[in-house]
Please model this.
Amino acid sequence: MVASNPPLVNSCFLRYNLGGIQEELIALPPRWLITDLDCTLLNSASQLSDYAVGVLRRAQSAGLGVLLASGRMIPSMWPHVRRIGSPLPFVACNGAQIAQAGTQQVIYTDYVPTDAAREAALALEEAGCYFHFYSGGAYYFAQPTPESDAYRQTSGVQGYPIGGPLSRRIDAPVIKMLAVAQPPVVARLLPLLRQRFAGRLYITDSAVPHARYIEITHVTATKGNALLWLCDHLGADPADVVAFGDGGNDVTMLRAAGTSVAVANASPEAKTAAAHVCETNDRDGVVRYIEKNLL
Model:
């Protein structure tokens, strides 16, 4: 079984129990890369190209540590984590959870307190938005809608209708909340929610092909904080990390990394936070940058 906190052997090596069978020593790479998935590493069909997999596997063979960070929940990220083959922990739910690659075992969670989750749910209900919340390894919504069907198809994970209103059904801390709305609605709601929950919740936006999300986590649950936690956990220097992203939920990660790269299809906010811009996700911009600059 993988230990919750694999011990650092020294500044050059990290001990991992891969697959729960045997321990191996993995040399800590001199540089690291961390990338978002949707609209960044994945193409507009939410797919990971064979070319991208090949480059990322070659990067690992060359000594680079490959880390993934997404707004997706752990089960939704898992097929991509497994295909890339990185043994390193990965960041889920915008930084609210970090899991081991070999087992999906959660090694870090930053919950939204119950009262704050209920209040946020009520605000989204008042705005007339479809939303769901994450708890354990699943997500829950009031009633099936076109939005819940589309999210299931994008994430590859089945959610559960539990009746509404959800503001009355939340009875424990939640990992994350996600609302789906048209871009004008997101643009209107985002500043209002940020003002209402300032200092209590981290509220950002993200996009996948054909959808726009409002994402809500605990105020300290961000991709940037998750990256800093991972660097401490793995004995890495944030200055040695190259980060890739496309959306508002990637901004803290782009700012925390020593080198930041936005894909050409990124939001203006992400491009402003990044030092560099690579090609679009549909042209495998992330791995082309890696191939040109890191290999």
